[in-house]
Amino acid sequence: MPAGSNTSSPSSSPSLGARWQATLATAGRVTAPPLLFGLRMWAAVCLALYVAFWLELDNAYWAGTSAALVCQPRLGASLRKGWFRMIGTVVGAVAIVLLTAAFPQDRGPFLIGLALWGAGCALVATQLRNFASYAAALAGYTAAIIASDQLGATGGPNGQAFMLAITRVSEIWIGIACAGIVLAGTDRGGAPRRLAALLAGLSAEIASRFAATLARTGPAFAELQLLRRELLRRVITLDPTIDEALGESSQLRYHSPVLQSAVAGLFAALAAWRPIALRLSTMPDDAARQADAVLLSLPSEFRSAPTPGDPAPWVEDPLAMRQHCAAAVRRLIALPASSPSLRLIADQAARVLAGFCHALDGLALLTADPDRRGRRRGARFHVADWLPALVDAGRAFLAIGAAEIFWIASQWPSGALAITWTAITVILFAPRADESYARALSFTVGNSLAAVCAAILLFAVLPNVETFVGFSLVLALYLIPVGALTAQPWQAGLFIPMAANFVPLLAPANPMSYDTLQFYNTALALVVGCGIGALSFRLVPPLSPELRAGRLTAFALSDLRRLATTTAALHTPEDWEDRMYHRLAAVPDASDPLKRAHLMAALSAGIAIIHLRRAGPRLGLNPELDLALAAFAQGHSAAASAELGRLDGRLASVADAGAETSLAARARGRILLVRDALSQHQAYFDTGEAG
Description:
Blueprint: H1 2-54, H2 61-70, H3 75-102, H4 107-127, H5 130-151, H6 161-186, H7 191-214, H8 221-236, H9 238-248, H10 250-254, H11 256-282, H12 285-288, H13 291-297, H14 300-303, H15 312-316, H16 318-334, H17 340-368, H18 387-410, H19 415-428, H20 436-461, H21 468-486, H22 492-500, H23 502-506, H24 516-539, H25 545-565, H26 573-586, H27 594-619, H28 622-633, H29 637-656, H30 661-680, H31 682-687
């Protein structure tokens, strides 16, 4: 027995040691990036405070606060946020200077103007996305910050707005610059590579699934619908990564329309894939074999990838892949079609591949050919729905107004600061829609915890510190671990305010002030202001996801009916696509997935109607087409489908006569597409309801 135990012990020890080593290595890989980010945040804050102290600025802590706010776990996001923070700060400063000049000695109109400015910024922030939305929100509460500095304890504007604006903008810009220096000097970035990987992966998966649909080896139609909706959601989420990539590269910023066209190309590919899948699902097997000719026209990479959805060919040589897709588009357009079904499938497959061409332009810009311009579509901005933004604006006006009334009634010396924090909370989280209240509540709790920690360090630790180095080490005890926690997805909404708003609570100055009454007044103003902002999201809640999605589909149907009855239509195909893409991106994830399916059907039907309108005069079919589209616009899908069937018969005779054969064949394919959409979504096209 002893001998047996001696022989087993040596063999088990190395195994246990190897497991411990592997565990420690894994823990190091997990914890190292967040801790490194915490170190960067601490270094950025300390550098900003040092520069602000050296310049003897009035409130140096705004520089440190801005440095903490700009810091993001990814370099591109930090730099992009810094640029937009600069813009928003300047806009807000100019607004408050003009407001003060308009009402120099009149507190009532001044406060009403401040609330209206906050409401306007909340409205714009809700309509914009990503860091542009952040800049609009910042313009709103920067004005409130400067206003609180000049309002004093209980009075009106003191006329110091211009100098205060110059000082605050300088302090904030110093913080942004210091954060950019630290982050750019310690992080190599990589957002363009991540974007390229995401774009290539999505393109490859869509391509392989699309080829499987043509080969009739993919999932059933219902399962394929769910898959397309998930792919559509992933395409929409590319937007923040594009912003990060633009933050890291000025060259990408110059060619940013190419990246936007790449995303639009994936939207177009998904939209064109839908009618093909629908048509194949309704055709008998013998007729569906017609799609084999379309499948053979696809690039070989779509049909013979080593692994379905493998992004390697897309990343390795996007220019060659683009040439293959462009050649396939030409083959599909020229493909002889013996039936309207085959013409529909071939034309929509060409649209799928044309969408991939735009995606490959974006990939070429990111990986292979940085000077490639690709297709630069003109910038179009469409408002998907004004009502959510108007609700956010009304809430911001009421919340800021309530804080102002409370300050006037209570004559609280820190009431002006409470107005500022109310404005920050209600404007900053307005674009979060369904998450607004939860985010605002986490923000309030995070700020409260930051106030407790700031009190401990301010009154128990800092009185024993005399040098800036010692002060920086004290900051490290707090900022490094809290900064590391902000880089984790778990409870980021709680830890971000703990990191960002710790410095203004601490209010470092030279010399330091240890006035307990002033500190507790400031902390109480912060908590009260955030609480008012959070409560406003309960009292004036955002529109529900179902209501917002229902309004978007109703607007799309209204536009589609107007498109059907107006010969001098507002829309080109590109403009119609852009309108629908904005609506698709605005559909809440929590709403019924069928809403996005309705929008995709409306997108495809609208493009087909635009082309039919253009082809009508050449084919001499305007009276019949007007009759069918009038029935469609009145919500009579069955009658519209019957009229379109008769129109298809007329076009068949045109094709048989040899007149405008190609145009007639394509028109028949588009008629079939519209009829398929009417059949699948009849309840929606008739009444706007789900069916």
